[in-house]
Amino acid sequence: MKHAVPSSCLVRHLDRRRRAARGLWRGRRWLVRRQCRLRRGQPEELAAQLHARLVLLDRTVAESGASRLRDARCLLRSAEVHELPGRAERHRSLERLPEHGELQPVLRRGPQHRLWRLRQRPRSPAAAEDPLHRAAVSRRPAGLRRGDVIKAINGVPDTTLITGNFSVLSGAAGQQITLDIERNGTPQRVTLTAADYALTPVSASATLTAGTAKVGYIVLKDFIVQAEPELTSRLNAIKAAGATDRVIDLRYNGGGRISTANHFASEVVGPRGVFTTLQYNSKQQASNRSFTLTASTAAGVFNRIVVLTGPRSCSASELLINGLRPYAQQVSTIGSTSCGKPYGFNPVESCSNTFSIVNFKAVNSLGQGDYEAGITPTCAVADDFSGALGDPTEKLTAAALGYLQTGNCPATAAAPSADRARALAARLQRAGAEPGERRGMTAD
Asked: Alpha-carbon distance 390 to 120, whole Å?
């Protein structure tokens, strides 16, 4: 579809009766010229967006009024943020950045095109009451468990949902949906009622054993401020239990705040030095800054740290692994290759919108940070989605405990390759995002 383009890119086509708003006209001139350059060999979608902005700008100026003029200036600023990637500082163009690993739907495609239940958030309407996830909800939870295979939603079969969309999962509080599931080969039917509930970024912790050694296990889903007091509390309990090793489960953690990652690292290794440094481009070296590890009551001497990873371990999750390596005696990863995103952004507010444009690259205290291809696991183990997170018999947890006990990787099915892991994560990103999902790595 072709979009109308002014017959000429000259200023004479501007409304000379509005010359008082010179700043707006300069902005409109830029939009016109930009649109003219897009007529040949450029995406039609971008041309359409520019044309729509021209129409809206003309309408805004024609209506005049101070507030409308401010709206027009705001429109121009948003156009510049959207359409002028060259004016946003970056290490490389956004088109070349990996676009995977940051959006995580509750449901996902299985190897035979099935819908799997990856996990449940504690206190959510879908939560199951197992030893590690005791849901405190006002109504009886649906009792979904990790590893349940969803065969139909409201009678719509899983094959249709996979090729269609997940909009059936969205609804107002009180709305109900019926799931036909398969648990350990047995068909069941459960009803979910939509409700508001508080996010629980630290969803599980436990003290496990690997041979004679005690191992502290903890799951972190989001690097958000709400996680920090809970991290401190649970890690103190793990330390008090006498754990000498740690297993950190980040397989479903898409990232979040760098300050929270710094807090987590401080709780693990204490005040050891620089955790990470944010490096801006050559024109913004004055913006470079470091996050330093601080003192913590939960920090202690831990012989080994094992991090469980997957294609959705992204951004701040990878930052935590990379930042701990110079200080811990041993940091190993078990699972599959992480998403590969050592980049982050400073959010920019404009016209009631927030634009997240890549600004910096993060490195650890040794200057290491080039993991665009993802962090390759020490032991490649495929996640089979069975068992509760933190259960010592769950596949990745069992692999971590076995590795800590013997020092050997388990003889098990290998995890997806790095390319396969990124392709999987990209499909999941297109499928949609879970409410409350953290996206990317934010400098704060």
From this structure: 13
Provide the 10 A C-beta neighbour count for residue 434: 18
The CATH number of residue 431's host domain is: 3.90.226.10
Instruction: Compute the distance between CA of residue 72 and CA of residue 52 in angstroms, rounded to an integer.
Output: 13
Are β-strands 304-309 and 245-249 bridged in parallel, bridged antiparallel, or unpaired? parallel
pTM score above 0.85: no
Tally of structural domains, the chain = 3
Cα-trace Rg, the chain: 25
List of residues 6+ apart from 333 with CB closer than 8 A:
306, 307, 308, 309, 321, 375, 376, 377, 378, 379
Name residue, tokens 């520019």. 50
CA distances from 102 to 338, 340, 430 (A): 11, 11, 10
3-state helix, strand, coil in the chain (%, to 5): 30, 20, 45
Query: CB under 8 Å to 192, separation ≥6 — which residues?
Result: 125, 126, 142, 144, 176, 177, 178, 179
Degrees (nearest 5) of the Cα angle 282, 440, 268?
95
**Class of residue 119 by CB neighbours under 10 A (exposed 0-12, middle 13-18, buried 19+):** buried
Going through 115-266 in order, the beta strands assigned E by DSSP cover 115-117, 149-153, 156-157, 176-183, 186-193, 204-210, 213-219, 245-249, 255-257
Beta bridge partners of residue 189, listed in sequence order:
180
Together in a domain, 184 and 221: no
CA-based nearest residue to 315, from 423, 220, 223, 247: 223
Q: Model confidence over 25-80: pLDDT tens digits? A: 555 566 556 555 554 455 555 555 556 655 655 555 554 443 444 444 454 444 43
Cα 332 to chain center, whole Å? 22
| Nearest one of 387, 433, 424 to 118, comparing CA atoms | 387
Do 126 and 223 lie in one domain? The reply is no
Residue-number span of the structural domain to which 382 is assigned: 204-442
**Cβ burial, residue 375 (10 Å; 0-12/13-18/19+):** buried
> pLDDT at residue 233 above 60?
yes
Q: How far apart are CA 360 and CA 50, in angstroms?
A: 28
